[in-house]
């Protein structure tokens, strides 16, 4: 019985926002900063300006910070990654598909250097090249650091950075839907 429960939990973790879309993995162009050799930064093209529609999307995403993770969840009682994204965009009159696989086909693909707040970032968290996670770009730092809001299986809705080794390694591509 314990083995069956463990297998079920492991399966749920692996496919939390899982999809079957195979994509070409792209590495994030980075450069090492001399003062802190472990920190990798992007040369971003972001102007620093965010329009009112994007500001509302980010405001709505931020109100869910701290919400717990829930498989297939799309309410403040609990979210999975694609549930958070679809809920936030729906609240802003932009209908997105529910599954991260389908979300990864929405809008247009952009270079991560061109990312701005409100864009979507996609990841292969189970290894390989299949989309299994999505987040909303929250901010681009002065050093090009891309921060994104997402529903983490372990910490719920949080803000993470592409500078974090785990996310940098899992990154696939970005898309603009607004």
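-> sequence recovered:
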């Amino acid at each position: 019985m314990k083995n069956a429960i463990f297998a079920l939990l492991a399966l749920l973790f692996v496919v939390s926002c899982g999809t079957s879309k195979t994509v070409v993995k792209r590495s994030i162009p980075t450069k090492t900063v001399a003062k802190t050799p472990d920190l990798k930064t992007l040369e971003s093209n972001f102007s620093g300006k965010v329009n009112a529609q994007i500001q509302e999307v980010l405001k709505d995403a931020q109100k869910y910070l701290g919400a717990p993770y829930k498989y297939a969840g799309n309410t403040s009682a609990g979210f999975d990654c694609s549930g958070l994204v679809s809920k936030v965009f729906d609240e802003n009159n932009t209908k997105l598909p529910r599954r991260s696989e389908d979300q990864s086909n929405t809008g247009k693909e952009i270079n991560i250097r061109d990312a701005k707040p409100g864009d979507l970032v996609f990841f292969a968290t189970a290894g390989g090249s299949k989309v299994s996670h999505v987040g909303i770009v929250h901010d681009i730092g002065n050093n090009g650091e891309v921060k994104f809001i997402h529903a983490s299986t372990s910490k719920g809705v949080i803000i993470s950075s592409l500078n974090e080794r785990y996310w940098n390694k899992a990154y696939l591509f970005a898309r603009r839907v607004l």
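The longest helix spans residues 2-14.
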